[in-house]
Amino acid sequence: MLENFSMYSDWGMRFLQFAVGVIFIYHGWPKLKKMGKFFSIGGGRHGLVEVIGGLSLIAGWYVREVGLVFAVIMLGAIWFKKFKWNTPFSSQTTTGWEFDFALLVANIYFLVH
Fold first, then answer.
1. Residue 2 falls within a domain, yes or no?
2. CA pair distance 53, 65, nearest whole angstrom
């Protein structure tokens, strides 16, 4: 019975691209306001990459390439949270890096699919 859903696998991929694209646009947009810190981590260039990459995922353009770039961004985010800020995987008082890990896996999927 569940094998009938395989005919919708393209739709699943498109929904995942849309969701990840929206998330990166949402988190990249505020970074665009930091154009004075264009070349710093979390600055304007970082925001520009996230917004353009998010739009590209939604449009279905260069999905593998964006998956690679976003996977690298998420590896950096996880590294900062885990080793620099000592953030746990999950926490009741702060955002852990479990969300970053889920985005990393989604972007690796875009890269290899």
1. no
2. 9
